[in-house]
Structure formats: structure tokens, C-alpha cells
Protein: Map3k7 C-terminal like
Amino acid sequence: MITTTRHVSPDKPEVQIAFSLNDSTDLKDAEESLPLTFPDLEQQLQPLPPYQSLPESLQVYKDHCKMAKEFHDVKKEIARLEERKKELIAALVEDEMMSQEASHLQEEFSVLAEENRTLITVQSQRSEQLEKLRVLNQKRQGSS
Structure:
């Protein structure tokens, strides 16, 4: 048994319709697998209850419900993919920031390594000068 409630127009009360698909197991299966309301669809696109005396009407209703369900599934998939897209964009932004940070650190390392080489060279030169001054000082003390 399918029961559905529809607003035919805003100025009229809602209409409740109940019908059974007992004469067709294929349609009964569809009844069980398809929802009766589709919140994603605008009111004018909602499947209307079929005329139970017309098999074509029942088939159109079944087809419409399937399309509405497919529409709902596609919208859910789009929402899921949009969420995944946001996650991937956030990960990309984070990766770019990490890459920039790594580049900055590499640049800083290069500057510091060059400064270190310069300081080692200066220290070596000063050590040589100090050694020469010691030798010169020892010669002066020895000659005096």
C-alpha cells in the first residue's frame, strides 16, 4: 500500500491518496525500493501518484520515482565530490605552504653555509697570522 500526501495548489487543502500495487510484483518491488518523497526536487517536479486503474500511469510513476532517486543520488555524489575537492584544495594549499617553507629554509641554509665557509676561511687566515706573530715575537725575544 502506498500512501502519499500532496498539495495540489496553495489555496486548496492537501490531498491524501492511497493505492496498492498488488497486481504487479515488479511495481511492488519498485514501491519498496523507491522513496515516496524526494526532498531535493522542487514541488512541481515531485512524482504525482498514479491512477491505479491505468498500468501506463503506474509505469510512468515508477519511472519518475526512479529518475527522482537517480537525481537524488547524483546530487549526493556531487556534494561528496565537492567536499573531496575542498579537501584536496586544502591539502594542495598546505603542500604549497610547506614547499615555500622548505624553499625558504633551503635558501637560508645556503646563506648560512656560505657565511660558515667565509668564517672558516677568516679563522684560518687569523690562525696563520697569529702563528706568524708568535714566531716573530719569539725571534724578537730570542734576539734581545
